[in-house]
Amino acid sequence: MIGTLLQILGSLGVFLYGMRIMSDGLQKAAGNRLQSILNYMTRNPVSAVVTGFLITAVIQSSSATTVMVVSFANASLLTLIQSIGVIMGANIGTTVTTWIVSFFGFKFSISSIALPIIGLGFPLFFSKRKPRRDLAEIMIGFGFLFLGLSFLKTSVPDIQNNPGVLEFLRNFTEMGYWSYVIFILVGTALTMVVQSSSAAMAITVTMAYKGWIDFPIACAIVLGENIGTTITAHLASIGTSANARRAARAHFFFNVFGVFWMLFIFRQFIGFVDKITPFWDTANPHDIPLKLALFHTMFNLTNTIICLPFIKYLALFVEKWIKEKADPAHIGYQLDYISTGLQDTAQFNVLNAKSELKKMAIVTGQMFRTFLEIYQQPDKKLGNKIAEMADTEELTDQMQEEITRYLIECTKEDLSEIFLENVNAMLRIVNELENIADSCMKLTYLLQRRYDRKIELHPRADEEIMDFSKLILDFMSFYQEQMNKHIEKRALDIAFRLENKINLIRDNLKNSATVRLQEGGNVSSELLYMDLLKHFEHIGDNSLNIAQALTRLH
To answer: Are 400 and 433 in contact (CB under 8 A)?
Structure first.
């Protein structure tokens, strides 16, 4: 008995390992297109559902998709309604894996070519070209997945040779609707333990194939697996924003609601599946996997069709369920690196980091505008404004540290060459943004000195500073609009023209200040003026560096 159990666990381990390797390879191969898929995601709930389906079908993991959704919701890349739509699509997309396993793993003897597939992929694994290595991972993972499935089929004892098991299960299968409830709970627990709905589905299909459970009981377990798979998103949402936790709860509620209404028409729904597939007989072990795959697909598709018109109300429900914290001000900035446990999501994490860069660019832009507000009120005490600017500058320090740590964590994964270049460009951008924040803080300290020492600038200073600051704001707006986009030479030429104009104005104004000093002007006033010009010019330099880094972004 112990030997059989160990063989089953080992078979499941090979299956899960193959699933991880194949998912990694698919994810890396598709990684460069994920940005365009994400852009499509933001249109409407229907497109969000389609996107969730496509991403899950491509990377072969609903867990990775839902964790990605939680991560993007946490970064405010997705609204709650968009997040729910993607989760609905992921539920449909995960059925693709079920069809692959059921069709190839049980209808055909794919195990006989599993080792040759691994053999073909193995030499490609040592290729210097990354696309070939990605293809090798897909092939090797595919081979291991079906090798594990083959081991699982042979490891699970045949029911004819183990009548005692059938007698044990019969105690739970003759309790009417309570039997279905019990096996829904079994499916939930099984998925939570193995942390993969695909692996849980493989076990369920194998048990039905071997005759341990009949078709309706297998369907009940599949329903439970839909609930169990929500635990991954729930775990990923711990410690995240309210919006991310709402997305995870919406996933849970959506799946539980689907199981709830299905219980009322469970037998009728199974009868409907039987009617549309008269050529698949549940008495034939080879047909049961395909029939289960169809039940899984029809259930998730129907549940999505029912719930999609009410997606706004579901969003309102989880918003009332998960409240915003009353005073989050004491919580420092933190950017958590997300990993699903079954496959890395580094490609998605890079996209998440891009959104944080945009936030940081907005924060630094607001710091410069706050400086201008202070500048235009020379007679007003600066106590509160100085403290506000200091807090914001501290926030940018935290953002620099967290985003840098986050990006370094991304480089530890096996990123595609394009994504790796993106990470290097973003590391430069985050440092330049922090330098801009430092310059804004130094400009504010100069205004504090002006107020404390009652320094009056020369009569034309206000006009000159405001004109100069308008050019700085134009440059900051330029890189904010281009942030996270690849900019071409034409856009970079605009950045160089802005930088040259800033340097020219700085030189002219600095020369004017020098002339006034030579003519007996106020030393404190002119030195303060030149310090303001110096930090303006520094912000221009940093802005140009950001524009140059954006040319390396894809």
So the answer is: yes
Instruction: State yes or no: pLDDT of 109 exceeds 90.
Output: no
- Which of 147-161, 228-242, 357-371, 482-496 has the highest mean predicted lDDT (pLDDT)? 357-371
Q: Given phi > 0 = left and psi -120 to 50 = alpha, else beta, which region is 535?
A: alpha
Measured distance CA(229)–CA(189) in Å, rounded: 10
Q: Tell me the CA distances in angstroms from 278 to 189, 281, 284, one per residue in order.
A: 32, 7, 12
Q: What is the pLDDT of residues 53-92, one digit of tens each?
A: 887 887 666 776 777 777 677 666 678 888 899 899 988 9
Cα–Cα distance for residue pair 483/191, rounded to 1 Å: 41
User: Which pLDDT does position 191 carry in this prediction?
Assistant: 84
Its sign, for the CA torsion 419, 73, 58, 229, is positive
First to last CA, the chain: 55
CATH architecture assignment, domain 346-550: Up-down Bundle (1.20)
Return the pLDDT at 160. 47
The CATH 1.20.58.220 portion of the chain extends over 346-550
Q: How far is CA 449 from CA 363, 388, 389, in A?
A: 24, 17, 15
From residue 380, give the alpha-carbon distance in Å to each of 222, 289, 314, 525, 542: 68, 76, 49, 18, 30
Mean pLDDT on 494-507: 93
Place of tokens 């499509």: 40
C-alpha 216/C-alpha 182 separation (Å) is: 12
**249-266 b/e (C-beta count within 10 Å ≥ 16 → b):** bbbbbbbeebbeebeeeb
Lowest mean pLDDT among 26-35, 361-370, 395-404: 26-35
Distance separating alpha carbons of residues 268 and 179, to the nearest angstrom: 16
CA distance to 35, 380, 415, 435, 537, per residue, from 105 (Å): 33, 76, 31, 57, 66
pLDDT at residue 541, rounded to an integer: 95
Q: Write the CA distances from 374 to 240, 368, 370, 389, 447, integer angstroms.
A: 35, 10, 6, 11, 8
Read off the tokens for 519: 């003519």
What lies within 8 Å, CB to CB, of 68 at 6+ separation is 55, 338, 345, 348
The reported pLDDT for the residue numbered 111 is 60
Among 156-165, 338-347, 408-417, 418-427, the range of highest mean pLDDT? 418-427
**Least-confidence region, from 117-121, 171-175, 445-449:** 171-175
pTM of the predicted model as reported, rounded to 2 decimal places:
0.63
Does residue 213 sit in helix, strand or coil?
Answer: coil
Pairwise CA distance, residues 176 & 173, whole Å? 7
What's the one-letter identity of residue 30? Answer: A
Rounded CA separation 13/15 (Å): 5
Whole-angstrom distance, CA of residue 395 vs CA of residue 385: 15
